[in-house]
Amino acid sequence: MKKRNSYRYITILLILSLLLLTGCGGKEAKAADIEATENQSSEASETIEEETTENEKAPEEEENTELPEVEEVIHVSSTEEFLEAIAPGATIFVEPGYYNMSEYLQEVQMWKGYDWNEEHPYVKLEYCYDGVEVVIKNADDLTIMGDAESLAQTEIVVEPRYAAVLTFFNCCDLNLSFLTMGHTETGACSGNVLNFYGCKNITLSAMDLYGCGVYAIETGKGTGDLYVYNSTLRDCSDGTLFLIEGVGNFEFRDCILTGSYSGGYYGNSADSELHFYNCTFGEEETNTWFFWQDIYAVDCTWSEITEYPEYEYVPIFEPENMEELSCNEYALADVPWIGYAIVNPESGEMTYLPYEISDGTYEYVYMELSEDNTGWIEYGDLRYEVTWECKDDVAVLQTTEGFNIYIRRYELWKDDAAYYWLLMEINNEMIWLY
Questions:
Q1: What is the mean pLDDT of residues 310-325?
Q2: Is the pTM higher than 0.85?
Q3: Angstrom distance (rounded) from CA 59 to CA 63
Q4: Measuring CA to CA, which residue among 306, 288, 305, 284 is closest to residue 297?
Q5: Number of separate domains in the chain
Q6: Is residue 312 part of a domain?
Q7: Separation of alpha carbons 139 and 169, rounded Å
C-alpha cells in the first residue's frame, strides 16, 4: 500500500470519510472522534500514522529516527581524578589549572607502591632513576583535552629529571589538545615530554611542549601516523624530536619548533615519512632540519643558518673528565641510549655516529633496556634482543645469539649539570652512548 504523506490529501480524505461514513483503506475510521476542521486535521493525520502497519514503514526510515549517542565527557580537576579517568574510549576534559603530577605520585608511591598498578589496568606508575612517571597502556580511542579558550590555562608537569610527562604504549587513536606540558624546572633532563611506543593514529593539536625535556616528542617501536597541528615545541635540552622505527607518516602543520639544543633526530626508513607544512623553525632547528635529507618541508619559515650540521647533535663529551659509576638498574632502564662514537681499542681512534655507509644508509647504535631486565640493541641493520642484569660495576647483556655485551656507566659534570654516558663492549668494539 502506498503511504499517504500529503497533509492536503489527508484533509480531503477525512472530509469525504465523514460524508460517506466509510473507513479508510479498509481500516476502521475514527470519524466519530474527529471534527471536520482544519485545526484538527493534523491530529487526525497522527492517528492514521499510528494505525499504519509495520510493513508500510521503510526500514531505512526507522533507523534514521534513532538519535545518535552523546559521548560522555569526564571533567577532572586533580591528578588523581585524571589518572582514574584513563580508559579506552574515554574523553577527559582537564579543568584549567596547574597540575604537578609528581606531588600525587609520591604519595601513591609511599602508601600503595606497586599495589596501585594492580588496580589500574590502563595506567601504570613506573619508577625511574629519580622518581615515578606515568605510563598509559592499551588505551585506544583516548582523548585528553584542556580549555580551548587558552592552552596556557591547563598545564601538566612532573618533577623528576628522568621522567617523561606522559608515556603511551600500544595505544591507537589518541587525541591530545589545548595542553601545556613540561618539567618543573629547566636544565639538564633525561626524560622527554611525550613518548609514544607502538602507537598509531595520534593527533596533537594546540599543544605547548617545553623543556626541561630531552625531546618534546619521542617515538619508537613502530609508532606512526602522528599528526601535530598548531603546536609549539620549545626549549628542550637535546632537541625537539626523536623519531625512530616509524611505521607510518609523521606530519607537522602550522607548528613552531624553537629554542632547543638541536632539531633532533629522524631515523628515516622505507616505512615512514616526515612532513613539515607551514612550520616556523628556530636557529638550531633550522641548522638541523633545513639540511636533512628525505624529509618534506613546504611553505616553512627558516631562521638564519649559522652552521652546517655534520652531525645533528654533538653532546658534551669529555672522557678525561668522566667518573665511572656503579651499575644502577634504575638509571639504565627505560632511557633511550644513542650511539655517539665507535672507538678503536688499539689506536683509540673514534668514528662518530651516525655515519653514512652507502647512499641513504647509515651506521648507528640505539639501545633500550626495560625494568623487567629485557631489552634490545639496534646496530645498523642488526638487532639484538637481550636479557640483562648488574654484576658488580658492570651491566651484562646476554643476547639471544649467545654472546655477551658489557656496559659501564659514567658521569660528567659540566656547568653545574650532570651528563651520563655508557661505554659498551660489543663484538670486540667499544662504543660510547649517551
A1: 75
A2: no
A3: 6
A4: 288
A5: 3
A6: no
A7: 8
